[in-house]
Amino acid sequence: MITTQPKKMNVLENGHVTSPKGFIAGGVHCGIRRKKLDFGWIHSEVPAVAAGVYTLNAFQAAPLQVTKKSLEKVHKIQTIIVNSGNANSFTGEQGYQDALEMQRLAAEKMTVEVDQVAVASTGIIGETLPMDKIRIGIAAMGEENHVAAENFEQAILTTDTKTKHVAVEIEIDEKTITIGGAAKGSGMIHPNMATMLGFLTTDAVVDAVSLQNALRQTIDYSFNMITVDGDSSTNDMVLVLANGTQGNEMLNEQHPQWAEFVEALQFVSQELAKKVAKDGEGATKLIEVNTFGAPTEIVAKQVAKAVISSNLVKTAVYGSDPNWGRIICAVGYSEQPILPNKICVSIGDIDVVKDGAVVSFMEKEASEYLQNEVVKINIDLQNGEFGATAWGCDLTYNYVRINASYRT
């Protein structure tokens, strides 16, 4: 697990999914949403080795089903299309056929193989796609005045208040390899494989099986460690494309720099995950929960997830109330082996529990710390050598307002 920037990596200023060589992206307004961009695409100049990870929600939406089936067949993607405003989820056979049509029309427009088109949708559940509007978006793909990474980032948003993007460079085989990414997510976010849309690109040459393994590994330390509201969506997935345009030696587990590549991929994923958590619906603060001293990695993760998912912890942070009892309570119901007389808790650098006992602290000082935009809660179980980090946000009145009127 990494939580800081690797030393041999350069974070690009305003980096995005088209920072890697050989990728373009764009977005248009096709009419699904009132005035905002609502149809976007990413395209590689050559077919890219690809990997995907998908929501565990039992009701997987039609676009996800189509993408998953194609990717399992060919292990390559050249074009990704995404619409916002309509999830095409719980739409039956009609929804599945609409997703297939989206895939076919995009393949014809971009002159690529049908199975090398990934389809994604996000928005309202239970309404069929307005295919007349989708066709308008597909017809505009690749047009120069619509090609811009920013357009793509805007087109995939729903209740998000800002775009989420990052890119880094690393040296592999004396080649400059770039990894870029974009994501959307603001509500229906909970650790259960991503629960959002994430798109990663790289110009590295990577073995397909190794890329899938690397994605699953990075997901477990990034998108699977965030929460906003505890709801897992029906549509969400993370895709990574490696188009190999930099011509390095094939990256796989035997390559001497494989660990550096995975580390960079994980950094990009973590940065995107934190941006999603920070932009939670109605959120004003990013919460980071760090666990230490756990007997296993699973224990460390589950304790961190329990605390970051607690509505009582989240509301306390919103109100700048250093109510450490809520943290202890969440640790206790995590269903993990805890030694109550050893646990230590700090809010930022302020100790509130030490060796299972309450520590006298200045409540005003703790309350002032909780007014920061980034709040860190540290939990030392003193029962092993494993740790984990989870991210989330505070729970505010505005979250209720946004979700009480989502469809109207």
Question: What would your notes on this structure say?
Answer:
With 408 residues, the protein is of the alpha+beta class. It folds into two domains: 268 residues, L-amino peptidase D-ALA esterase/amidase; 119 residues, Ubiquitin-like (UB roll), CATH 3.10.20. Helices cover 31% and strands 27% of the residues. The chain contains eleven helices and 15 strands. Strands 1, 2, 3, 4, 5, 6, 7, 8 and 9 form a nine-stranded mixed sheet that branches. It has a six-stranded mixed sheet with strand order 13-12-11-14-10-15. Helix 5 links the parallel strand 8 and strand 9.
Q: Cα-atom Rg, whole angstroms?
A: 22 Å
| Class derived from helix and strand content | alpha+beta
From N to C, what is the helix and strand string?
A: EEEHEHEHHEEEHEHEHHHEEEHEEH
Q: What's the structural domain tally?
A: 2
Shape: globular
Indicate the mean pLDDT.
90
Q: Span from first to last CA?
A: 42 Å
Main β-sheet: number of strands, strand sense, barrel status?
A: 9 strands, mixed
Strand content range = 25-35%
CATH class of the largest domain: Alpha Beta
| Helix residue percentage | 25-40%
The CATH superfamily label of the largest domain reads: L-amino peptidase D-ALA esterase/amidase
Classify the fold: give the CATH topology of the largest domain: L-amino peptidase D-ALA esterase/amidase
| Corresponding CATH architecture of the largest domain | 4-Layer Sandwich
Give the helix tally: 11
Pfam families: ArgJ
Protein name: Arginine biosynthesis bifunctional protein ArgJ
Enzyme class: transferase
Function: Catalyzes two activities which are involved in the cyclic version of arginine biosynthesis: the synthesis of N-acetylglutamate from glutamate and acetyl-CoA as the acetyl donor, and of ornithine by transacetylation between N(2)-acetylornithine and glutamate.
